[in-house]
Every structure is written in structure tokens, then in C-alpha cells.
Amino acid sequence: MQEYSVRRARTSDVPRIQALVAPLVQERILLGKESVVFYEAVQEFRVVEDTDGTLIGCGALHVMWEDLGEVRTLAVTADRLGRGVGHALMDRLETDARELGLTRLFCLTFEVPFFSRHGFSDMGSETVDPLVYAELVRSHDEGVAEFLDLARVKPNTLGNTRMVKRLV
After folding, report:
1. pLDDT (tens digit, 9 = 90+) per residue, 9-34?
2. Over pLDDT 90: what percentage of the chain?
3. How many domains does the chain have?
């Protein structure tokens, strides 16, 4: 019997998502975000609840371009690590990405082994077509700046690995 389920996040989940990611923000694994940012992006989030309704994981898929999305704020409670919760979230986010017509997923992470197991690889100096770059560089979104490896986000990305996955 499955001990948890993945579903679309609701606005009422935002405080629980914030509580879930707070320890990872304190450890500087995830960047902190204001409440308004979570509410603005709630439709991008999927959450995992156990059979008691406790939130045990979350993750978001943010569309960056016609073929490109970013996996954001992927988090699992410490007591559920290694029990398939993160993998269930990734499966759901990849399904969502395919439904949207995306062919590539990006992430900025310290969790290289986890994302490698899901087919992501270090994107190194990979970039996008110059015309797409010219459009993306206009974005105010920090995730887009991280994808483009812009100098203004370097202090926030130290030690992280920029990874990409091609969806088939």
C-alpha cells in the first residue's frame, strides 16, 4: 500500500510548503522566498502528503521558454528521505513538463547524485541560441538568471551545479 500521494498544491498549502523548506533555507541548500512568491507560483507546485495528510514533500515546475522548464524548490522532510518521495515528485513534474510540451528540464542543485539518477547531467557551458538568450536575459526571474549563469546571481549559486535533462 502506498504511504503517500502526490497532488497539485493549493493556496492553503503555502504555509506548510514554507515550513517544509525552512530547514533547507537555514542550511543554505535552498534560497529563501517571500510568502508572496509562493502564492504567485502555487499553480507550479506539487505536494506529497502521507496518509494522515501531513505534507512530506514539495516541488515546482517553472516554464522558462517554449521547450525549457526548471525544477524548483524540490524538498522532502528529513524523516522521509530515501523512501521514494523525491522520486515520486520528479516523476510527476516530468509528466507535467511533457504535458506542457517541454523537452528540457533545468535545475540548480547541491543534490547532484539525486538528479543524476533522474537523467540530469552537468550542463557545463551549455547555453541557448543567441536569439533565445536575448529574450531570456530580459526576464526578472532569478531562476532564468541562474540558468543563463549571469554574474549577478553568482553569489547565490556558489557550490551549486547547473544540470539539465533532455526529455524523450
Report:
1. 999 999 999 999 999 999 988 888 99
2. 68
3. 1
Q: What is the pLDDT of residues 34-75, one digit of tens each?
A: 999 999 999 999 999 999 999 999 999 999 999 999 999 999
Closest CA to 119 of 90, 86, 81, 89: 90
- Domain with 16, as residue range(s), is 4-166
Contacts within 8 Å (CB) and 24+ apart, 123-126:
123/162, 123/163, 123/164, 124/162, 126/164
pTM of the model: 0.88
The CA dihedral of 5, 8, 12, 16, to the nearest 10 degrees, is 50
CATH of the domain at 148: 3.40.630.30
How confident is the model over 134-139, as a mean pLDDT? Answer: 81
